[in-house]
Structure formats: C-alpha cells, structure tokens
Amino acid sequence: MSFGRVLGHERVKEILARGLASGRLPPAVLLAGPEGIGKRTLALALGRALLCERGGDDACGACSACHRIDRATEGLPELREQASARPDDAAALNLRLHPDLVLAEPWRLTREGTARAKPEIKIDQVRNLVREIQARPFEAKARLFVIDDAHLMNEEASNALLKSLEEPPPTSHLVLVSSAPQNLLPTIRSRCQVLRMAPLPSGLLEAHLRDSRGLSAEEARLRVAMAGGSLGVALAFESDSYRKLRAQALEMLVRPVAGLVALEAAEQLAELEDLPLALVALRSLLRDVAALRAGAGRGQLLNMDLADELAPVARGPIGERAAALAERTGVSLQALRGNANRLLAADLLVEAFRTAR
Ligand SMILES: [Zn+2]
From the CA of 64, how far away is ligand 1's center (Å)? Predict the structure, then answer.
C-alpha cells in the first residue's frame, strides 16, 4: 500500500512524504482521528515507504522490502492467529511485517489463554518494543514501530514507553494510532507530532465504493449515509460480524422491551464487542423501517434481504417512530464515538425504545 492507494487524507500524506523525502521524519507521530478512516493503513504505508530500498518520498512497490511487507500485510489474520496461540510471548504478540516494521495491537488474552473482558496493550509488549526501539535496523536503513489503539496502554505501559520517546535512536521511528487521543498520557502526547485525520468526505467515499468496489450508485449512497465518514464501516456491511450484529439489532425491533428486560437489553447491548457497529446496524434497519412505512419499495432498502422481517415492524408501533428512533440511535453513536460511557449510551437508547411502545 503506497500513499497513493490510501484513500483521502491528502494533507497528512503530504506532511509524511515531505518528512521522508528530506530524511527528517519526526521520531514519534500520533495519528489521531475517528475509527475506520485509515489511520493504521496510513501508518503501515509510512513504514513501507521508510523501509523501501529505493527510498524517496513513497514506496516503489517493486523491491523485496515492499513485496515482503505486502505479503505480511495480507497475511495479518494468520499472523494474529499464530500470536494468539502464545499469549506469554510478548515478542510474538508484537506482529512483525518485516524485521524492521513492527505492529503492536491490543489483545484480549490472559496468561491462562482465556479471553479478558477488555482488550489492552500489555506491559510486556511495550517492554519488548522499548528494547526493539533501541536496536539498530536489521536490514533496512531505518525501523518503524506502530502502536495501534495506543490509548489502550495502561499507565504502567505508557510510562515504560515514555523513556523511549525521550531519546530514540535516529534510525527508529514510532507511530501511535488512536481514536481516543485524550486518553493518552499528556506526557506521551506532547512528545509526538500530532497529525489529526478527519472522517472521509462523503463524495470521496461514494466514488471509491462505486469505482473501486463495484457497488451500484444507490447502494454506495446508502452505505455512505450510514458510515459516518468511515471506509471501515462502509465496507463492514458485507462482513459476517456485521451480519451477526444486525441480527441482534433486528431482535430489538421485533421483540417487545419492558421493565427489567429493558435493563437487561441495555446491559447486553453495552457488552457487545463492537457497540458502534451494532448501532450502525440498528440505524440502518430503522432507516429501512421508516422508508417502508413511507411506502418505499424493496429496491430502496439498505437491508433488502430482510424486507420480509422489516415489513411487519414498519406496520407496528416502532414503524410510527422509526425515523425518530433512527435519529436517537445516531445521537448515541455520536456520543460513543466521543467516548461516552457505553452502558449509559445503551441505556438511553433502550429507554427510547421502551417509550415507543
Ligand atoms: Zn520498494
């Protein structure tokens, strides 16, 4: 993935390309912005450009370093699976796309091999990174370390990292990626050059879905309306995990919610791993229910495959308030993206459904 193939973010790409060309890439960069807009993709593109044997302001795509990183990026799911089998091995948990390009991500693993409730970047992972940052490049002229969801380092891990940020060797570069930069230690933030990345413009996303992903103009438009400027969300509509979340959201529309059950429903909702994506699914269903209520045909639905389930909902009490509930869902989604308390956001939403009956 060269800069040219990362969608949007022209200003940030230009800043990074200039740093590469002049040999003055900052030692630590923080890419901050909402989820799903391409922050990690850009961080890895920067690593590829930095390690490329040709040098210059972008990767050549043809040298052995570029090929190696491309293969490793495609193989990330397998790398993750191999790493998860060794939860004790911090060096393995930091994923190696090239001897000089390392990606650290949060894990849900415990030493016992069972899943934790919350993902985190482990202190051992950071200690391993700190050691690696001090080392000379193995093969390339420089090394790049990416920490994804850097706000999921706890205080101990953050403090361990801080020391490397003070005086990294000139051949080591660090890129922190975060959708919640306000949760990073201020001392970490202040040692990074902060580059803010905005949601992708609707026009750009729509054109990309149409021209590069082969979607119809209508489907591209509908998806972009739900995606909140995130390519990740716009593409997630096809994923299995999205379909699962959508089935759970459909339950909320079909099953009555009352009394204690409402509290339970809110708790269940808040515990969903990807609550924002669940809300995107719920909002897309409500949008379709409102459209059906207003007399739209199947062809105009985002969830065409669920038309049979959604039609009776549209005729019922939810149908009457679907447009308002879709808006309410959008407000909860915005609040969550701004890092509001999950249970509170879920609770407000369930309450909105309860009063709808
Ligand atoms: Zn190259």
Answer: 7
